[in-house]
Design a protein that fits this description.
Distance between the termini: 36 Å
Shape: elongated
Number of domains: 2
Strand order of the largest sheet: 7-5-6-4-1-2-3-8-9
CATH topology of the largest domain: Spore Coat Polysaccharide Biosynthesis Protein SpsA, Chain A
Helix content: 40-55%
Largest sheet: 9 strands, mixed
Structural class: alpha/beta
Bound molecules: uridine-5'-diphosphate, magnesium ion
Order of helices and strands: EHEHEHEHEHEHHEHHHEE
């Protein structure tokens, strides 16, 4: 037996995943068997599941002490479940993986290889997406485009959260305690040596996706507002442009009135201008509101999550969210 094996944590957030957890565990077990030169920890994060997810985690832990579980006090969403997992993971490296087996665990071996070569963030990029509607693919593509147009940091396209992170990336992510997290952007933001590997995304093994358009819209807005204030800049620029046009229009009307007198029928133009400006004003009020709301939420400095149970221990959350 070799001493000083490196510890690798496999972090799997799960929300109502009772149908797939056993399958996931079996696959992870294979990976662990095939990579004997590492020690492994499997850390399941139960994100307030309402089904048997927690019971299954407990059962898996009873049979295998490499398994740990962290059960949050309610459902917080995947972004928060991930940071909770990062806070509790022990590994020298962490692999974040979806519980539904859309991320093939077999890729972990390749990630480890690149990690040994000195990469800090080995992320898996989707070559294809099976079992997803064209609408989801299309919106996801547009979304990356829009987000990238708004921000200077590079947003990795077709990349989920499936990746291996070196301990220093983990510490970097842990030090970022903003509450409306957009982890996909944070991965880029922290920097370090990145390596891309390609894979085919599988359809969900079982269970239902928790993904929906409301989540996507929320996540998109979080993505934009957490990484750039350029929409505010756009508000200013568009405001200036509209004012210039309005000023020119005003001059022409005044001159026209002086030369040809008042012609009363102006209903259409007044309506158009009023509605147009009203719309623009509302949009930018909304934009300002988004940033204000964000600032409000962050100034509350609430802990990001509360833990119900970590392994067998009931948590009191005294010195949590360091
Ligand atoms: N997930 C979670 N909390 C949530 C929603 C999802 O921890 O509130 C987990 C879920 O169990 C899965 C991963 O996040 O492991 C991805 O979720 P899902 O498969 O529903 O999203 P999709 O792959 O369809 O984008
Ligand atoms: Mg999924």
């Amino acid at each position: 037996m070799e001493e000083n094996k490196k510890l690798v944590t496999i972090l799997a957030p799960a929300y109502n995943e009772q149908e797939v957890l056993h399958l996931l565990y079996n696959k992870l077990n294979n990976v662990m068997e095939q990579n004997k030169n590492y020690d492994f920890e499997i850390l399941f994060v139960n994100d307030g599941s309402k089904d048997k997810t927690l019971e299954i985690m407990q059962e898996l832990r009873q049979n295998d002490n490499r398994v740990s579980y962290l059960s949050l006090s309610r459902n917080y969403g995947k972004e928060i479940a991930m940071i909770a997992g990062l806070d509790y993971c022990k590994g020298d490296a962490v692999v974040i993986i979806d519980s539904d087996l859309q991320d093939p665990p077999e890729l972990i071996a390749e990630m480890l290889k690149y990690w040994e070569e000195g990469y800090d963030d080995v992320y898996a990029k989707r070559r294809s997406r099976k079992g997803e509607t064209w609408l989801k693919k299309f919106t996801s593509k547009m979304y990356y485009k829009v987000l990238q147009a708004f921000t200077r940091i590079e947003i990795q396209k077709d990349t989920g959260d499936f990746r291996l992170l070196d301990r220093r990336c983990v510490e970097a992510l842990k030090s970022i305690r903003e509450s409306q997290r957009y982890t996909k952007g944070l991965f880029s933001w922290i920097g370090y040596n990145k390596k891309e590997i390609l894979y085919d995304r599988e359809p969900r093994a079982a269970g239902k996706t928790k993904w929906n358009y409301r989540n996507l819209i929320n996540l998109s807005i979080d993505g934009i507002t957490s990484f750039t204030t350029s929409p505010l800049r756009w508000a200013t620029i568009i405001g200036i442009l509209v004012s210039v046009v309005a000023f020119i229009y005003m001059l022409t009307i005044i001159i026209k009135t002086i030369i040809t007198g008042i012609d009363v029928p102006g209903y259409a133009s007044i309506m158009v201008v009023t509605l147009f400006l009203g719309g623009i004003q509302l949009i930018f009020l909304g934009v300002i509101g988004e940033y204000l709301g964000r600032a409000f939420n962050e100034t509350k400095h609430r802990p990001l999550y509360f833990v119900d149970v970590y392994n067998e221990e009931k948590e009191t959350n005294k010195n949590l969210n360091k």
